[in-house]
Specification:
By secondary structure, the chain is mainly β. It has a 7-stranded mixed β-sheet, with helices on one face. Strands 7-5-3-2-1-14 form a 6-stranded mixed β-sheet, with no helix packed on it. A two-stranded parallel sheet has the order 4-6. It starts with a strand and ends in an 8-residue tail after the last strand.
Length: about 220
């Protein structure tokens, strides 16, 4: 499996010839929209910084809400959640995706705004190997809440997303606040995350992986 980050909450996840895209953004974010071919496109919620379907090449199968899906050998589960901590009253609903690909369980939290996951959500998600978590606050959970959710899920690897980077016009916090909460003083960003199931960390402590912006 190869995971590439295009900024904000947009990722390309590839196993063999199969490519899945999540949350491509609009140019009005200030960032250059992603351009790559995908077989499957998952959208967590219908906001301009997550739903730019036109930027993804090919004719991907679209998943844009809760449910169970099986496409091209991938098992995908969409779990309903909220974009705020008032049961969607401020910003509506959000879909969390669990993707089983290449025998690795990946979870993308989208624009999760709940301070913690419910027992029902946790039970639906089950065990997670790699967790993509928003950390920038204001529109999503912030650094402290992200740590609380990570502790609920207990993944083997955490990839932060939805934080301030050069060019982004959306007012969110940067990465340092989350790194401080996580207890990581210095983290060297990686070009992409490439691994097989046997490469997953086996120790109890969760590993933090910070990804560089693709094509930056």
């Amino acid at each position: 499996m190869v995971i590439t980050w295009y900024g904000h909450s947009c990722f390309k996840i590839q196993a063999g010839e199969t490519v899945l895209a999540i949350d491509p953004f609009d140019k009005s974010t200030g960032l250059t929209p992603p351009r790559f071919r995908a077989d499957i496109l998952a959208i967590t919620h219908d906001h301009y910084d997550h739903n730019n379907k036109a930027s993804i090449n090919g004719e991907p199968f679209l998943i844009d809400g809760p449910g169970e899906y099986e496409i091209k050998g991938l098992e995908i589960l969409g779990v309903e959640s909220f974009h705020d901590d008032e049961e969607g009253a401020k910003r509506g609903k959000n879909t969390i995706y669990k993707i089983k690909m290449d025998e690795i369980r990946v979870c993308h939290l989208g624009d999760l705004g709940q301070e913690k996951l419910t027992d029902r959500q946790l039970q639906a998600l089950g065990e997670i190997d790699i967790l993509m978590v928003p950390v920038g606050g204001k529109y999503t959970i912030g650094a402290a809440e992200a740590i609380a959710v990570i502790n609920q899920i207990e993944p083997r690897i955490v990839i932060p997303m939805h934080y301030k980077i050069p060019g982004l016009k959306i007012d969110v916090a940067g990465l340092p606040e989350f790194l401080k909460e996580f207890g990581s003083k210095e983290t060297k960003p990686e070009e992409k995350l490439t691994l097989k199931k046997k490469d997953l960390p086996q120790e109890e402590e969760t590993k933090l992986v910070v990804l560089k912006l693709a094509n930056a």
